[in-house]
Automatic annotation (TrEMBL):
Subcellular location: Membrane
Naturally occurring in which organism (per UniProt): Aureobasidium namibiae CBS 147.97
Descriptive protein name: Myo-inositol transporter Itr1
GO molecular function term, any single one: myo-inositol:proton symporter activity
A GO cellular component annotation in the UniProt record: membrane
Keywords on record: Membrane, Transmembrane, Transmembrane helix, Transport
InterPro entries membership: MFS_dom, MFS_sugar_transport-like, MFS_trans_sf, Myo-inositol_Transporter, Sugar/inositol_transpt, Sugar_transporter_CS
Predominant subcellular localization, coarse grouping: membrane
Topology term for the membrane: Multi-pass membrane protein
Lineage: Eukaryota, Fungi, Dikarya, Ascomycota, Pezizomycotina
């Protein structure tokens, strides 16, 4: 077992005992194999970019549509256009997991890519609210499928000791995509058909890259296609491909032997698995219910509401802060630890949200039911409370991105191999369900409760979340997957995880 205490974040992507060699035993130059893994990560990561782009672009689109869809948009229209994406994503993610098992990972990524292209073009040609909702739904299906299968594909092609880092790369792509969406929304100055249609460009690039993308070698072993799997492992720079194939076959066999009927039953009845699912799904729910995406989707609307003359430009601050602080999380996640990052950052989220609530108490801005975003009551943005609100929001986003935005996506490390795909799929579906709830309820809450009380609801969620994390989420940093399983066998493992010597750290 490798030394798990060392800081190995600077190591190259492929690490093995023959790393000094320039050529793997299979005859493939290591440099070439390393380039291939990066290329595959980039190709698959483009789905993350599209996930981010398509969820981010809605913010500027909503304030630019005006009456282009045949009528002024009602609150219901705005909520439906926004939440149709997450609704379809939550349906598509478990389905994509199923098809990825039956057909392979690559065809599902390719199908998602096709949907990204079609959905983007369909939206840009939308003539009424319903065609727009349909376009957003097509893109939602693509986002759901990609968010379930792309991390799985990356994990399966990566060397074991690089999986965690590559999962975080995915978060960088998502938040980077959101920045690009905001810039595009701002640059096209209200011509929203261009900004939504632009989503097809990275997808077209991905379609071209997909041609050379191999199937996941682990899936190939699962289907008994050992020779093809050996060839892919060789291209990925592994030294002893036959040995790896034998190892994966052994794991597959063990899974089949230990399975207590169905994977679902094993997930629900084995205590360690049930705890893993509770933690993974709980963190995903907390990530969404803490309200971050209400900013991702509606920040331009909020800034318009409080009187900023360039709401789309101002809301760029939100996505840029999100991206920059995701970089911070990426840099520290393997040093500070998942649990500790959350315990440090959630209190700052609470502070940021409470400050927003305070600011709204002093800002006289309203969005009444009959009003559209284009007829929001405008107030003077030079009002110091509006600026205070902007800083409070950025503060909140920074705290979110450096912890809760990233940590839940590490979910797969919580599950043992036999239930990993289903556990991760269900946790992903929890993410999209909660995302849907926030997208669908934010504007109605603003109207009925008012902005201050709405932000206080998120404060409450974060407070509960903090207590829950403190009580139930053990530290998994630097643990081998087997040790994580061991940690959850006799309880939540929080105390044991804080006594590194008990776990051989
Ligand atoms: O981790 C990501 C990231 O934080 C995004 O900015 C957010 O929009 C997603 O919902 C979340 O899953």
């Amino acid at each position: 077992m490798r030394d798990i205490t060392g800081d190995d974040s600077q190591q190259p992507l492929i690490v093995d005992e023959h790393d000094d060699d320039t050529t793997a035993r299979s005859g493939v130059p290591k440099q070439k194999a390393r380039r291939l893994i990066w290329l595959l990560t980039l190709s698959a990561g483009l789905s993350g970019l599209l996930f981010g782009y398509d969820t981010g672009v809605i913010s500027s689109t909503l304030v630019s549509i005006h009456e282009d869809l045949g009528r002024p948009l009602s609150t219901f229209d705005l909520s439906a256009i926004t939440s149709s994406t997450s609704l379809l994503a939550l349906v598509a993610s478990p389905l994509a997991g199923h098809f990825a098992d039956v057909l392979g990972r690559r065809p599902v990524i390719a199908a998602a890519c096709g949907l990204f292209i079609f959905g983007a073009l369909f939206q840009s040609a939308a003539t009424n609210v319903w065609t727009m909702i349909l376009g957003r739904s097509i893109v939602g299906a693509a986002v759901g499928a990609a968010s379930a299968v792309v991390p799985l594909y990356i994990a399966e092609i990566s060397p074991a000791d690089r999986r965690g880092q590559l999962v975080s790369v995915q978060s960088l792509f998502i938040t980077g995509g959101q920045v690009v969406a905001y810039v595009a929304g701002w640059a096209v100055m209200g011509r929203w058909r261009w900004s939504v249609g632009f989503g097809s460009v990275p997808a077209l690039i991905q379609a071209a890259l997909l041609v050379g993308m191999p199937e996941s070698p682990r899936w190939l072993v699962l289907k008994g296609r050992d020779e093809e799997a050996t060839a892919v492992f060789a291209r990925l720079g592994h030294d002893d491909c036959d040995h790896i194939v034998a190892q994966v076959k052994h794991e597959v066999k063990e899974e089949q032997l230990s399975a207590s009927g169905s994977m679902f039953k094993e997930l629900m009845t084995v205590p360690a698995n049930r705890r893993a699912l509770t933690i993974a799904a709980g963190l995903q729910a907390l990530q969404q219910l803490s309200g971050f995406n209400s900013l991702m989707y509606f920040s331009a609307s909020i800034f318009a509401m409080v009187g900023f003359t360039s709401p789309i430009g101002t809301s760029l601050c939100i996505s840029v802060s999100n991206f920059v602080f995701t970089l911070l999380a990426f840099a520290i996640i393997d040093r500070v630890g998942r649990r500790r990052i959350l315990l440090y950052s959630i209190p700052f989220m609470i502070l940021g949200l409470a400050s927003c609530a305070l600011a709204f108490m002093h800002i006289d801005a309203s969005l009444t039911d009959s009003k559209t975003l284009s007829s929001i009551t405008s107030v003077d943005a030079s009002n110091s409370w509006s600026l205070f609100l902007l800083f409070a929001l950025i503060f909140y986003v920074a705290a979110y991105a450096s912890g809760l935005g990233c940590v839940p996506w590490q979910q797969s490390e919580l599950f043992s191999l036999s239930v990993r795909s289903m556990g991760s799929g269900l946790a992903t579906a929890t993410n999209w369900t909660s995302n849907f709830i926030v997208g669908a309820t934010f504007l109605p809450m603003i109207h009925t409760l008012g902005p201050s009380a709405t932000f206080l609801v998120y404060v409450f969620v974060c407070l509960m979340g903090y207590i829950w994390v403190w009580r139930y989420f053990p530290e998994t940093m630097n643990l081998e997957l087997e040790q994580v399983k061991q940690l959850l066998e006799n309880g939540w493992g929080v105390k044991a995880s804080e006594r590194p010597s008990d776990l051989g750290r």
